[in-house]
Protein: DUF1801 domain-containing protein
Amino acid sequence: MSSTKSSFQTVEEYIVTFPDDVQATLENIRQTIKETVPEAEEAISYQLPAFKYYGMLIYFSAYKDHYSLSFPPPFTIFEVFKEQLSPYEVSKTAIKFPMKDPFPFELLRDIVKFRATENLEKGKKKKK
Structure:
């Protein structure tokens, strides 16, 4: 599904490698993160779209049949959002959302808010 391009410089370059319907969802994920944490900086990290806010905030991506949200440590979101994540496949670092189902944007907002607060607190502790 994704292009064989091995080096993305921008989030746009990543998104345009997908079919229109997948591009639309990826763009909505991107905009939801931007609206939730306007101060977050967009980046490409590990060849995936990502956002940074007092450290790495979130990665997002698309595959053949699912979207993925990935996170760096600490992985507290998986415990905090355990109930809300129960319908989805979850690994140590990521959540898979089937493309056949509507994407849960409200859950995305809640997770991003939590991660932003977590990163901000971590950033404050480092400054002390």
Summary: The chain has one domain: 11-117. The first strand starts at residue 41 and ends at 45. The radius of gyration is 14 Å.
